[in-house]
TrEMBL record, chain A:
Natural source organism: Catenulispora pinistramenti
Keyword tags: Cell membrane, Membrane, Transmembrane, Transmembrane helix
Membrane disposition: Multi-pass membrane protein
Transmembrane segments: 26-47, 255-284, 305-329, 349-368, 424-444, 639-663, 684-714, 734-756
Family annotation (PANTHER family): ABC TRANSPORTER PERMEASE YTRF (PTHR30572:SF4), MEMBRANE COMPONENT OF TRANSPORTER-RELATED (PTHR30572)
The name this protein goes by in its record: FtsX-like permease family protein
Automatic annotation (TrEMBL), chain B:
InterPro entries documented for this protein: AAA+_ATPase, ABC_transporter-like_ATP-bd, ABC_transporter-like_CS, ABC_transpr_LolD-like, MacB-like_ATP-bd, P-loop_NTPase
Organism, as annotated: Catenulispora pinistramenti
Domain ABC transporter: 34-257
Protein name: ABC transporter ATP-binding protein
SMART domains: AAA
Stretch list, region Disordered: 1-31
ATP-binding among keywords: yes
Superkingdom, natural source: Bacteria
Entry's Gene Ontology molecular function annotations: ATP binding
Length: 773, 257
């Protein structure tokens, strides 16, 4: 079609006239498309990010399949460089000198931190492990250091702060100049290579990528082949990318099912609403289609008019909604995936998909009813467009007319039956809105409760440790007593740990011994009880599930030729799959006379944690005193859930708004007649609100169990993937008042969407309606 | 409901199947039931009515005639409280419609007015009986009671056997009878008819005319707008002619047989 025909042809003129004449409808469609595009970008972005999240980050950084630790004394630089050209190696970077050092990052983040520091120039394109520098700059001279930290996490020291290196005497102080993140986990910090001599490097690091790296065995075989030419004993250890991947994904496993569910919900709501709004608008224009046909428009021209009419708000809405979706979605995704670092970006594929897909859905939603109307006779189209098809839901309306309900209410209850398809789509949108509200709210509660329980938020105010290598100033018991005497301390638990053997288990297990007031330290129990006497053990849920241990079982623990027996008395949320907690008496059997090297402090009610920490530091300057955060560990998740819930509820409410707009416009004659026989504005509003309230109520009735079920499903997936057992209070988060409120969410969405057009319907002029009809 | 300054006063409890409640209680039995004083109604730059003064006494049957666009329907809409005058005063059954808000106007229509339209304006999804009962049900009359009265009215109008039929299956005359029954449901003081025979064949039109005459003879005040001189001649006791928004002639009529 030529430009002249497009701009001056009858199709264009009719489309332009329709857009101009139905400004409110065009605006609503544009708004719905914008919100739907936003929702679709968000949903597809989440689905994209949830598909192989580690692989995406790993690919972006050209991650290392193997991080090899090499003995610098055994191989020359030439020999090491030759490994990069070995068969099967597709990329290699290094060697870099590496050292284990202790940095004192200050008391707020736990004081001393043991770190692997690597001397490396700024990563260049093509390097393996292109570390992402996300704040500050790369070190350019000795005395500067960049710390490894996932994006968005609290910085242990602001850029510019100088930190002490305390591993040994004479080590240099280093100034933090930036933060970077390595998804391959190759180092905890980086300095310039010329700095390393002062840090006493103890090994070299080579980073490899291999042609075959799908399994641990393949990685090991490829690394062995690559280093085969090195002198024996040069390769002292390595870290496979599969191990790093498993560790990273473990942090995300609880999030992925939730993100996928949100993504599916967002896309579904977007598509449903567009279908509802656009097809409804076309159906309400059937009368015009009939008129076009009477003046000679061909069926094809009629279809073009409607597709073109919808194309205007569709394109404008998509162009506006898409960038908003990206702006809202990317920070949310970054928060959700910050464990993997990297900037999560909505892929161009998703954006292009939405840019084409959303207008395409609009065009399809317009095409189908327009095509149907174009095939009707002109008279049939006019009569179909003048009012809803007769004979629908007549029995229901008849029964309602005879009911005891106020007539405006009974008429409102009958309205949805006049346009069953439109009502069904509106109901589906409300249903998904309610499901999202119930699911998101429940999941946020479960995740918050679980994280708070797992991290023992609020229970441990500060912890106190002392570096045994520096020599304790006093035995543990004495320190415990001293801490107990500090104002603001309510309870003190003494603690130490060991790697022990357990009869029947092939690997060593980390045992954490607790004495003193350990019951105050916030261990949430799934089953059984916390340590309450000698020879008792409490196991984390992950340990219990991995090792198939049960409550009441007796474990034989072995250390340095000594053994002790203890009974499993409880299962707790806190802890991993290769550790458990034992009473202090077990330590005395395994390692008599051993003292605590760490203390957990429970603060008295109202005590200031920072002030308490300051008092403890003043008591013994050598102690490492760390303040535990009371911050909700899932604050970001809550924001995320709230944003998704609000967006999807708004989209659903817009669907209701549009339905009411179309219904009242189609029923203008009936409304005019009803008002002429004395229906008051309040009764009109009541009638319209009742019609949508019914859909909202049904949305609540069906959406509540659906959201509840989805929550149960996702929580059980989280439990299964994480090997967790959650306490009943974390699973059954829906209290009766909460359920009642959520049940009303559907009505809330319906009322929100229906109020404005209902009030508008109550106000329109009867004489104009009756005259125009 | 307590009447306020913006809402009309309650009518007396109606008696009898057909016949106006207003006949038993008018604010001033000797005075006009409808009073338009110097009424003007503008639509954009056009005056649809310009300085119209018209008084209608209780029991009268007034026909308003004139060419299309002369302002007949506008006058009817103002009397029905469907529209508001740009200036002047409209008082019906003692109610100054200018002082009523939207709710007050709705209650006024419900209690004082019955309306018949050229194209019936029935709810297509409701059978005849429920269409008629609707007007009472909006006032809170229980469904059973409303349906009983609606059936009584349909019987009076000779279409009780069509009570369960939907509008689409009724003839034009039957539909207009249902519309008349609905208009009479709340025993209005004033029956307004906008081209009541305009969409009917001659036989159905005759039947509706007979019906209106009967109602008037029972004391029902009528104000009708029509193009049809036969309707005016048969049903009206007074003829008002309008042209360009002004009353140009007014005369009493002797009803023809």
């Amino acid at each position: 079609m030529s430009a002249v025909r497009i701009t001056k042809g009858p199709v264009w003129r009719a489309s332009r006239a329709a857009v101009k004449r139905r400004k409110v409808q065009t605006f609503v469609i544009g708004l719905v498309v914008a919100l739907s595009a936003m929702s679709a970008v968000l949903g597809l972005g989440l689905l994209q990010a949830s598909t192989g999240p580690f692989e995406q980050a790993f690919g972006q950084q050209n991650g290392a399949h193997a991080v090899a630790d090499l003995d610098a004394a055994k191989a020359t630089g030439q020999q090491l460089a030759a490994t990069a050209r070995a068969a099967g190696v597709t990329g290699a970077t290094g060697p870099f000198q590496a050292a284990q050092v202790s940095l004192n990052l200050g008391p707020e983040v736990g004081g001393l931190m043991q770190m692997t520091v690597v001397g490396r120039p700024r990563p260049r394109p093509g390097d393996v492990d292109r570390v992402q520098l996300w704040q500050g700059r790369w070190p350019s001279a000795p005395g500067e250091i960049v710390l490894d930290q996932p994006i968005g996490q609290t910085l242990p020291a602001p850029p510019g702060q100088t930190v002490a290196t305390v591993s040994g005497p004479g080590l240099p102080a280093l100034t933090v100049v930036g933060y970077a993140f390595s998804v391959s986990d190759t180092a905890d910090a980086w300095v310039v290579p010329s700095q390393m001599a002062a840090l006493h490097p103890d090994h070299l690091q080579m980073l490899y990528r291999f042609a075959k790296s799908g399994t641990d065995a393949e990685v090991k075989a490829e690394l062995t082949r690559a280093t085969a030419g090195l002198p024996a004993g040069t390769l002292v250890g390595y870290q496979s990318w599969r191990t790093t991947r498993a560790e990273m994904l473990a942090k995300l496993e609880s999030l992925l099912p939730m993100l996928i569910a949100f993504g599916v919900l967002a896309v579904s709501v977007a598509v449903l609403i567009v279908l509802n709004v656009v097809s409804g608008a076309v159906v309400s224009g059937y009368k015009d289609i009939g008129v076009y046909k009477t003046i000679g428009f061909t069926p094809r021209q009629v279809v073009r008019v409607y597709v073109a009419t919808m194309a205007v708000p569709a394109v404008v809405g998509t162009v506006i909604g898409l960038p908003i979706g990206v702006i809202v979605g990317e920070p949310l995704m970054n928060k959700a995936f910050n464990a993997l670092g990297g900037q999560r970006q909505i892929s161009p594929l998703v954006m292009v998909g939405c840019l084409i897909g959303v207008p395409l859905v609009v065009a399809l939603a317009a095409y189908i009813p327009a095509r149907r109307a174009a095939g009707m006779s002109a008279i049939a189209a006019i009569s179909a467009g003048s009012a809803p098809k007769r004979g629908r839901g007549l029995k229901v309306q008849r029964k309602l007319a005879g009911s005891r309900l106020p007539r405006s209410v009974s008429m409102g209850l009958g309205l949805p039956f006049a346009r069953p398809a439109r009502s069904a789509l509106t109901f589906a949108a409300v249903l998904l809105g309610v499901t999202t509200v119930v699911f998101a709210n429940g999941l946020a509660r479960t995740m918050t409760d679980t994280s708070a329980a797992s991290d023992r938020v609020g229970a441990v105010a500060v912890d106190v440790g002392y570096d045994t290598s520096q020599g304790a100033s006093a035995p543990g018991d004495a320190i415990g007593k001293a801490i107990r005497g500090v104002p603001g301390v309510d309870g003190v638990a003494s603690q130490t740990g060991d790697m022990v053997g357990v009869a029947g288990m092939t690997t060593e297990v980390n045992i954490q011994y607790y004495g003193g007031d350990s019951a105050l330290m916030g261990f949430t129990m799934v089953k059984g009880h916390w340590l309450a006497g000698p020879d008792q053990i409490v196991v984390p849920a992950r340990f219990l599930n991995r090792h198939h241990v049960s409550l009441g079982q007796v474990l034989i623990v072995e250390l340095n030729g000594r053994s002790a027996t203890a009974v499993v008395v409880g299962e707790t949320i806190t802890g991993g799959d290769s550790m458990f907690y034992a009473d202090w008496s077990t330590l005395q059997q395994l390692s008599p006379g051993r003292q605590a090297d760490r203390f957990e402090v429970h603060a008295a009610a109202g005590a200031d944690r920072q002030a308490l920490a300051a008092r403890l530091r003043a008591l013994a300057p050598g102690w490492n005193v760390g303040v535990h955060s009371t911050k909700d560990p899932n604050a970001e998740l809550k924001v995320f859930s709230a944003v998704i819930t609000i967006v999807l509820s708004l989209v659903a409410a817009l669907g209701v708004f549009n339905t009411v707009l179309l219904n009242t416009r189609e029923r203008r004659r009936d409304l005019g007649m009803l008002k002429s026989v004395g229906m008051t504005p309040r009764q009109v509003v009541a009638m319209v609100m009742t019609s949508m309230g019914l859909l909202g109520l049904l949305g609540g009735i069906v959406g509540l169990p659906l959201g509840y079920g989805l929550h149960a499903l996702i929580v059980s997936m989280i439990e299964r993937t994480q090997g967790l057992d959650l306490a009943p209070s974390m699973v059954h988060v829906y209290t009766l008042p909460l359920l009642a409120w959520m049940f009303l969410a559907g009505v809330g969405i319906a009322v929100l969407g229906a109020l404005v057009p209902a009030r508008s319907a109550a106000r329109f002029s009867i004489s104009e309606v009756l005259r125009s009809e | 409901m307590t009447a306020t300054a913006n809402e009309p006063t309650e009518p007396a409890e109606p008696t009898g199947a057909v016949g106006p409640a207003g006949t038993a209680e008018s604010s001033d039995p000797a005075g006009p039931i409808v009073r338009l004083d110097d009424v003007r109604k503008d639509f954009a730059d056009t005056a649809a009515l310009d300085g119209v003064t018209l008084h209608i006494r209780q029991g009268e049957a007034v026909a308003v005639m004139g060419p299309s666009g002369c302002g007949k329907s506008t006058l009817l809409n103002l009397v029905a409280g469907l529209d508001r005058p740009s200036s002047g005063q409209v008082v019906v059954h003692g109610e100054d419609l200018g002082g009523l808000n939207e709710t007050g106007l709705a209650l006024f229509r419900r209690r004082r007015i019955g309306m018949i339209f050229q194209f019936f304006n029935l709810i297509d999804d409701l059978p005849a009986l429920d269409n008629v009962a609707l007007a009472a049900q909006l006032s809170g009359v229980p469904a059973g009671q409303a349906r009983r009265r609606a059936l009584e009215l349909l019987g009076e109008l000779g279409i009780a056997d069509r009570k369960n039929i939907y509008p689409a299956q009724l003839s034009g005359g039957e539909r207009q009878r249902v519309a008349v029954a609905r208009a009479l449901m709340n025993r209005p003081a004033l029956l307004l008819a906008d081209e009541p025979t305009g969409a009917l064949d001659s036989r159905s039109g005759e039947q509706v005319m007979d019906l209106l005459i009967d109602l008037n003879q029972l004391g029902q005040t009528l104000l009708m707008v029509t193009h049809d001189p036969r309707l005016a001649a048969r049903c009206a006791s007074r003829l008002v002619e309008i042209a360009d928004g002004r009353i140009v002639a007014e005369r009493a009529l002797e009803r023809t047989a």
